[in-house]
Amino acid sequence: MEPPTPKPGDVLQIGGAASVQFAGDRGFRFKVIQACPKPTYWGWLWLTGYVLDGKGQATERREIFVQREGLRR
């Protein structure tokens, strides 16, 4: 069974467990706007949202492709 799909408003820590492209110092906090409902590879999903700075302010809108099991709330 897959972990639950993130909902709008969830704040996630995106790092190497979510995708190798976000490993090391390339990780960031991410506020979800939308999880794409279209099917993709098992265990993966597209998320749309905002990268958050250290104060919790949105700095950049992004669409990311990540593994559900690697998402940290």
Would you write up a description of this structure?
The chain is mainly beta. The protein has one domain (about 10-70). Helices cover about 0% and strands about 40% of the residues. It is built from no helices and four strands. The chain has strands at about 10-15, 30-35, 45-50, 60-65. Strands 1-2-3-4 form a four-stranded antiparallel sheet, with no helix packed on it. Strand 3 (about 45-50) and strand 4 (about 60-65) form a beta hairpin. It is globular. The model has no long low-confidence stretch (mean pLDDT about 95).
Topology:
Blueprint: E1 11-14, E2 28-35, E3 44-52, E4 58-67
Antiparallel strand pairs: 1-2, 2-3, 3-4
The percent range for helix content is under 10%
Segments where pLDDT lies below 50 for 5+ residues? none
Describe the strand arrangement of the main beta sheet, using strand numbers.
1-2-3-4
Enumerate how many helices there are, as a single number: 0
**Radius of gyration using CA atoms only:** 11 Å
Ends apart, CA distance between termini: 18 Å
Largest sheet: 4 strands, antiparallel
The domain tally reads 1
Broad structural category: mainly beta
The tally of beta strands, per DSSP, is 4
What is the arithmetic mean of pLDDT? 96
User: What is the H/E string?
Assistant: EEEE
Strand content: 35-45%
Shape: globular
How would you concisely characterize the structure shown here?
With 73 residues, the chain is mostly beta strands.
